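Let us practice reading a record.
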Amino acid sequence: MRILIAIFTFVLAFTTFSQDGVIHFTGNVKDLAGNKKLGGVKITCTSGGSVVKSVTTSGGGSFDFNVPIGKSYKIKFELSGYISKFINIDGREIIPEDLTHGEAPMVFEITIFEKVDGVDFSFLNNTAVAEYAYDPGTGYMVFDDKKMRNVRNQIQDKIEEMNALRAQEELKVKNFNKLVSEGDKQFGKGNYEEALMKYQEAKNLIPDDPTILIKIEETTKKVEEQKQKDQLAKIEADYQKAIKDGESAFNGKDYELALQHYSKAAQLKPNEQLPTNKIIEIEDILQKLKADKEAAEKLEKEYNNLITAGENLLKGEEYANAKSKFEEALKLKPGESLPQEKINQINAILKDLEANQAKEAQYKKLMDEGEALLTSKDYETAKAKFQEAAKLKPAESLPKSKIAEIDEILSKLKEEKELEANYNKLISEGDALFGQENFEGAKKKFEEALVLKAGEKYPTDKIAEINKKLDELKQQAAQQQQYD
């Protein structure tokens, strides 16, 4: 494909007849794809960020405007839906005296192309497609060929990308039309679900196509109509099968299964009388069977409840009540061995319990006496009671824990007594030293007392008093030294 980025034909002629001059731009703008001249293209000529001239191409795509020489210009070409381009013109070196009729003509043609989603031409926002500058040596405007080729290559790459996207779009349209055609064929054959699948595939390619939306709506209605017909046929087939299966189960005396089949038939066709009559007949049979079953189940339930109650009472060590429940169960089912076995077990337990009652009573008496003595802080006597209880029932942990508790209390009491004695001794010694006016020795004793009982008021006050006395003695000594 021939790519026309920009073609510039320019003429600069110079004479010595003018002091000032202009650059005279003329030419046209074309669409790259169709080589069509484009009207309404906005051409903005700026210099130093300020707009110098702004024109719009005619219906035939042409333009004609002047700008003063002696400046650099950026000429930008813009049209809605198209990629914008710009060129740079450096007219700062043009000599006014060399101009013919006071103007430097530049004639050129530029092509622009439409935007395509997914192709990024943003580099053209900051890159000129061509750059021209005046060459005093030749007297002509020349362009930077290397930069121009580089931009052309970048544009070429993007155009190839653009063409690839367009090819994809064309393929999408082709596939869309193929799917619609296939859907139409299936629709004509009455294969509405297949047709709907084809239409939906086509819609996935072009979601906004109004024709495919209409086709999907019409086909969906047809599918629903077909489903209704198929559903009625299926109901009839299911009904006949339910009746047949119900008769088979009834003849085999599987009344529950027969009831299920006839109930299903009645749900499928509520106005049919046959399944309703069979349901009534079966329910009567089931009611009689149920009554017989309930009588047997009631006896079994009462028996099991008595056995369960007896087991629970036995676990709870309510032996007399448990024995009574097993005796009642034995009356209901005299041939059963379990209730008699349980009765024998309970009789043996009751015999053992009677033998242990005296021992248990003595143990409880000792524990109660020990608790009372512990509460009244008679620790030694309480300990003796708990030791006797531990001998009666060595496996019991409570008397052992009580003995350990008392040992800990007695140990603490002993420590507290020793501490109190040491404290009082230090206080007495401190008071004696204080009375002898041995303040340093007294202070040390009171400080030792505070170590034993931190925060005690008496040694704290005495230390403060001693510190005061020591300060007074220091002052007296200092005054005496001055007199001496």
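A brief commentary: The mean pLDDT is 86.
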